[in-house]
Design brief:
By secondary structure, the protein is of the alpha+beta class. The chain has 20 helices and 48 strands.
Length: about 1000
């Protein structure tokens, strides 16, 4: 599987003929001329008091290129725009490199008509799926990089655009570097242009403009495939047919597709057209033709969501009957997804973590049952409110009969896997994600290829609660992948790819435009593997892949989702070959399957099952623990409590904890503690500590005498050099409220940030034992980390740690602690008291804005109106409300103004408030934390620690609020000219 190298050719395209502006288009004020000085001809832009931007646009198109030019900036701000396009309202969209006379923003990257400022001078940033922004470090000190750029002298700018990778060089020095890898927002081709920003006097001169195109030598529109394969784009999907996300082949080779929002369509590949099917059904996340019927998974709220079956009873090629077999779902993108026919003849369905189980789910006979969070310590939910309150089983794999009379849960603990694939040995695999906002945090897990072992918990939990990869009661990944948005999974042997591809998985990544290949290799009772790149395109946001039946056998691929433009692709072998599957099952996998069957049949003795516990093979242990379910539980209990071999004891005690009662808690804990001391294997010690934590998480705290023994054992474990042992010992000690806060503070000074953040996560819950100086040290440490490099929620988690640490303090104690912080320790926005101007209404303000002259500075007004305290704008601001980056590309000026003046008109469920009624009154706020004992509301988005904790026992009712947490009247202190400036600043590039 060797990939084609991407060959490049360079060809030059003229932009400026050196004599005139012939061919250019001016948008906005006509301030562009051609001037000749010192025998050099330049394009000059000069304007005084511009009220709108002026653009000089070159009519050509550039995708991948190197653009170089010389510039002399005398005043104001200039934009060198590239990959620019116009939308239907004639608004410009694309990127630009900034050049400004104050020398503070030169070389930065901005987006026109979208996200605005993206990467400042000196920075290296990545923009991923869901507007996830990551600081990847620096390219240098911004002041030093720009120190030699002076007004009135000539300098050079070089812009290089290769796919999503964008670099800006000034005078040969790299000033900013960006990877824009979100296919829903990135710009891959477009025009070149030059712009003057509105404001006071502006003047720039440009010459020696050279554009060199970089063209990929590829027969298939820049899609790279391995040797022995060819690819072609079959069609681009008209926008009125929606954004396609799922497909299925009918027996005769006809292809059905479904948009994310819209009706299922049948394609005519010969003509490149499609038409809706006869039955009005769509919004399908998964489709499967089997047993003379089309099964459809509809991702909508009841009563339309769930599993549907369509049949053609007359044989005329038109579906004429429709059965709604099972109703469930919530309309979420983390709902039910793909549907596959399993080797057992049943329907297998994978669904995300935001959706409840379908009706008629039979947990008693399910391989995966009796799940729980199994978290000993209180988690920290996502600081931006994502998935708050969503608990196990998380994402699951389900199976049901062809009539959906009963569902079983095969495996759980996934996040939002979207597809399944079966191998010739009947093994099932999926591709699962983690939350990109958590990148840089110790609980973040990379996207992973998962072997679906019946009965296995794959360890996803909300917020900071994700299980560690090494936990003995969770399965490890087959392989971790680079950052990705996992979508489709297929078995390459299902098509005509030949013998070399039998036993290979193909895995699609929506956000990075690539398909990985992985050949699972048996490792014990499960698999491991190494990723290779199979296909890569620009843009190539794969939403679904399926193999066509014989005689075609090619891989068909659709791109789309989230409103993006869809295309249909085909990848085929140069010499198609079909091979008979070669099934070679290892003895360990054969034994694991035997144990899984025994979990249903109960046909193995306890001795036969017991010898497969404690082997260090977690897939085998999972199957053996499943087999214990079918045995007399009193016999299993006695055997677990008598076990003396530490590795076997781990599995026995985990089964006892998860399926037994609490009567054996103390005896089990004491035996686990003794085994921890007895064994010298640090891996087994960590596993024993995990079993200890699960026992207490399920059955409560031990007696005082048992607690004393545990504390003595665990304090010794803190001296262990193994970080897994240290982490689990500290976790249990914090739960027991042992005096280890000084030890935690010392560990927080670790040179490894991952470790330091883990200790800080534990310390936020530690009760008592704190001295005032230690409390001050902890809070100051948290505030020093606010600027860490990481995902979107990184800084918010640190703020949440501080809030949780102070939550249970007496008000006087908390105020005294806050009073000791230095001014630099307090990340507060300075208050700007302003006089009341008017109680603005839509009609009054629209009339006032007609003749309003812009005044003031947009960024300062964004702060003065307190917008910055709740809304992020290009990396700055709070997270209580929606991110306003790129709002100019989403909302017209009237819509933006209405959103400001009437915040209750449209309230996103992501930022909605919650009404909580108690006997003491009615309270409202944003739900940010929840557990079995209480809920926590953020009652004041302006205050970093203004939260309200309400005991569940005191709650009479909880209802979603249709009132926005954003106060009305925030513009009432601004004059019309200032509001005009603020609107321009939010919407201008």
């Amino acid at each position: 599987m060797v990939l084609h190298a991407l060959a490049l050719t360079i060809c030059t395209a003229p932009i400026f003929d050196g004599q005139s502006l012939e061919g250019f288009t001016v948008v906005g004020p006509a301030v562009w001329t051609v001037e000749t000085t010192d025998s050099e001809t330049s394009i000059v832009g000069s304007g005084d008091g511009l009220t709108q931007a002026s653009w000089l646009l070159w009519p050509g198109t550039a995708g991948d290129f190197v653009l170089t030019l010389a510039f002399q900036i005398d005043a104001g701000t200039t934009a060198v725009a590239y990959r620019t396009t116009f939308d239907d309202t004639h608004q410009l969209h694309g990127y630009f490199a900034s050049i400004d006379a104050t020398n503070t923003d030169t070389g930065s990257l901005h987006e026109i008509g979208g996200r605005g400022p993206m990467t400042p001078p000196g920075a290296r940033r990545r923009f991923g799926f869901q507007d996830n922004r990551q600081d990847l470090g620096v390219v240098g000190d911004a002041d030093a990089l720009l120190a030699d750029i002076t007004v009135g002298t000539w300098h050079t700018l070089r812009v290089t655009a290769k796919g999503p990778h964008l670099t800006h060089h000034i005078d040969g020095r790299l000033v900013s570097e960006t990877w824009d890898e979100d296919p829903s927002t990135q710009h891959m081709t477009g025009g070149i242009g030059f712009g003057l920003k509105p404001g006071s006097n502006s003047r720039v001169s440009l010459r020696q403009i050279d554009l060199r195109h970089i063209e990929a030598i590829s027969s298939i529109d820049q899609l790279q495939v391995p040797d022995g394969f060819h690819a072609q784009k079959l069609m681009d999907v008209p926008s009125d047919q929606g954004s396609w996300v799922s497909m299925a082949f009918e027996p005769d080779g006809e292809l059905l597709v479904s948009p994310q929002h819209g009706r299922i369509r049948r394609l005519n590949l010969a003509e490149g057209t499609s038409e809706p099917i006869a039955i009005d059904i769509g919004h399908a996340q998964g489709m499967l033709y089997s047993d003379g019927a089309l099964y459809v998974i509809v991702s909508r709220n009841p009563p339309k969501g769930g599993l549907h079956r369509l049949r053609d009873t007359t044989g005329d090629g038109r579906y004429d009957t429709h059965e709604h077999l099972a109703i469930w779902g919530n309309g979420s993108e983390h709902g039910p997804h793909a549907i596959r026919l399993g080797p057992d003849g049943k329907l297998w369905i994978v669904q995300g973590n935001h959706t409840a189980l379908p009706p008629r789910t039979n947990l008693e006979d399910s391989p995966f049952r009796a799940w729980a969070e199994d978290l000993l310590l209180e988690r920290q939910w996502d600081a931006n409110g994502h998935a708050v309150g969503i608990t196990s089983p998380g994402g699951v794999v389900l199976r049901t009969d062809l009539d959906a009379l009963s569902f079983e849960v095969v495996s759980g603990g996934l996040r939002n896997a979207c597809d399944l694939a079966f191998m010739p040995d009947d093994s099932c695999f999926t591709f699962d994600s983690d939350m990109e906002w958590d990148m840089g945090m110790p609980w973040y897990r990379p996207p992973r290829v998962v072997h679906i072992v019946p009965g296995a918990d794959n360890g996803w939990r909300g917020g900071t609660g994700k299980w560690a990869n090494w936990y003995p009661d969770a399965l490890p990944a087959v392989a971790d992948t680079p950052p990705a948005s996992p979508t489709a999974v297929v078995h390459a042997g299902d098509g005509g790819f030949g013998a070399d591809w039998e036993g290979v998985l193909l895995l699609a990544d929506w956000s990075y435009g690539r398909i990985w290949s992985l050949e699972p290799q048996a490792k014990g009772a499960s698999f491991t593997g190494t990723l290779e790149l199979f296909a890569h395109g620009r843009p190539f946001n794969v939403s679904c892949m399926r193999f066509a039946p014989k005689p075609d056998g090619a891989l068909y691929i659709i791109t789309g989702g989230r409103g993006t433009t869809s295309s249909l692709w085909r990848i085929a072998a140069d010499e198609p070959q079909w091979v008979e599957p070669q099934v070679d099952i290892s003895p360990a996998i054969t034994q694991r399957m035997r144990l899984e069957r025994a979990g249903v049949a109960g046909n193995l003795s306890i001795d036969e099952v017991w010898r497969h516990l404690g082997t260090g093979d977690r897939a085998m242990s999972t199957a053996a623990r499943s087999a214990l379910h079918a045995l007399p539980q009193e016999t299993v209990r006695d055997r677990a409590l008598r076990e003396t071999d530490p590795p076997i004891m781990v599995d026995g005690m985990l089964h006892l904890a998860k399926h037994g009662g609490g009567d054996d808690r103390d005896e089990a804990l004491l035996r686990l503690a003794a085994a921890t001391t007895r064994t010298g294997d640090v891996g087994v010690q960590a596993d024993l500590l995990r079993a200890m934590a699960v026992m207490m998480a399920r059955h409560g705290d031990p007696t005082a005498a048992t607690r004393d023994v545990l504390e003595q054992t665990l304090h010794r474990m803190l001296q262990n050099s193994n970080h897994q042992v240290q982490r689990e010992a500290a976790r249990v000690l914090v739960h027991l409220n042992a005096d280890i806060n000084a030890w935690l503070l010392a560990k927080m000074e670790s040179v490894h940030r991952d470790d330091a953040l883990y200790w800080a996560l534990l310390a936020r819950l530690h009760r008592g034992h704190w001295t005032p100086s230690q409390e001050l040290h902890y809070v100051r440490w948290l505030r020093r980390q606010r600027g860490i490099v990481g995902g979107r929620s990184a800084a918010g988690f640190l703020q949440a740690f501080e809030t949780r640490f102070m939550r249970d303090m007496e008000a006087s104690h908390r105020n005294a602690l806050l009073g000791q912080l230095d001014v630099d320790d307090n990340p507060t926005v300075p208050s700007m008291k302003r006089p009341h101007v008017a109680h603005w209404t839509i009609s009054e303000l629209n009339a006032a804005l007609v003749d309003a002259t812009p005044e003031g500075d947009g960024e300062a007004l964004f702060t003065a109106a307190r917008c910055v305290e709740c809304h992020r704008f290009h990396g700055r601001g709070g997270s209580a409300g929606p991110d306003l980056s790129g709002v100019g590309g989403r909302l017209s000026e009237p819509d933006l103004l209405r959103a400001m003046l009437e915040p209750n008109r449209n309230v996103s469920d992501q930022y909605a408030a919650t009404w909580v009624e108690t006997e003491d009154g009615l309270f409202t706020g944003r739900l940010i934390d929840i557990d079995a004992r209480r809920i926590v509301l953020d009652v004041d988005p302006y205050a970093p620690v203004r939260t309200m904790s309400i005991l569940r026992s005191d709650i009479l009712s909880i209802e979603p609020s249709d009132v926005s947490t954003m106060p009305s009247g925030l513009l009432n202190t601004l004059r019309p000219g200032e509001i005009r400036t603020l609107l321009n600043w939010l919407r201008e590039p």
